[in-house]
Every structure is written in structure tokens, then in C-alpha cells.
């Protein structure tokens, strides 16, 4: 996987690669982390396997120098939170 990332960031000049799996796929999660991917986000109860619900987990790897541009503030206060209204649809 590291060889593939080297090719994607080098020859293909990609700046970012994303992968998604489900939280119950522990082997994939370990393999992605070992290859240099970082967990970026989760979609709660997004994947159903049998009778159980698992989170969808998004991972990303970025080319060097792309993650945090020099002009990006890292201490920004979060924006206002939106309150959801209405019933939550059942999956």
C-alpha cells in the first residue's frame, strides 16, 4: 500500500487519497493506519452487518506539505452548531 501511495503522490501528482471502511473491519483499520492513513471522520451507525450497526470510518493520506498550509489558522473557534429538528429516520 505504501508503494501505491508513493506512486499516487509522485507520478500521478495527487494531493490526497481517501479510503472508507466500517468500524468492524479491524484488519483494514490496522492496515490503513500502518500505511500512514489518518482517521478523518465517522458516520455513526452507517453500515449494517447482520443485525448489528457499525460506524463508517473515513481515512485520508495527504502528500507532504498539503495537510496544513502555512496560512491556515489551527486555533479557529468552531462555528455555531446546528440543531436538527424533526424525527430521525430509521435506517
Topology (elements, then pairings):
Elements: H1 2-10, E1 16-22, H2 26-34, E2 38-49, E3 52-62
Antiparallel strand pairs: 1-3, 2-3
Return the CATH topology of one domain: Aminopeptidase
Query: How many DSSP H or I helices?
Result: 2
Rg, alpha carbons: 17 Å
Strands, total number: 3
Strand content: 25-35%
Q: Largest sheet, described in full? A: 3 strands, antiparallel
CATH top level of one domain?
Alpha Beta
Helix content: 10-25%
Poorly predicted runs: 69-77
Could you state the order of secondary-structure elements as H and E?
A: HEHEE
Q: Let me know the average pLDDT.
A: 80
CATH architecture of one domain: 3-Layer(aba) Sandwich
Overall SS class: alpha+beta
CATH superfamily of one domain: Gcn5-related N-acetyltransferase (GNAT)
> Looking at the structure, what is the overall shape?
elongated
Described by its quaternary structure, the protein is single chain
- Order of strands across the widest beta sheet? 1-3-2
Instruction: Kindly report how far apart the N and C termini lie.
Output: 34 Å
Structure write-up:
The protein has a domain of 61 residues: Gcn5-related N-acetyltransferase (GNAT) (Aminopeptidase, 3-Layer(aba) Sandwich), CATH 3.40.630. A hairpin with a 2-residue loop joins β2 and β3. By secondary structure, the chain is of the alpha+beta class. It has two helices and three strands, in the order αβαββ.
Amino acid at each position: 500500500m505504501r508503494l501505491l501511495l508513493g506512486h499516487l503522490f509522485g507520478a500521478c501528482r495527487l494531493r490526497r487519497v481517501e479510503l472508507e471502511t466500517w468500524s468492524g473491519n479491524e484488519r483494514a483499520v490496522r492496515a490503513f493506519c500502518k500505511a500512514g492513513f489518518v482517521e478523518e471522520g465517522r458516520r455513526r451507525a452507517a453500515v449494517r452487518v447482520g443485525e448489528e450497526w457499525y460506524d463508517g470510518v473515513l481515512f485520508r493520506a495527504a502528500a507532504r506539505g498539503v495537510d496544513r498550509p502555512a496560512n491556515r489558522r489551527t486555533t479557529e473557534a468552531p462555528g455555531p452548531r446546528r440543531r436538527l429538528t424533526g424525527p430521525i429516520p430509521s435506517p
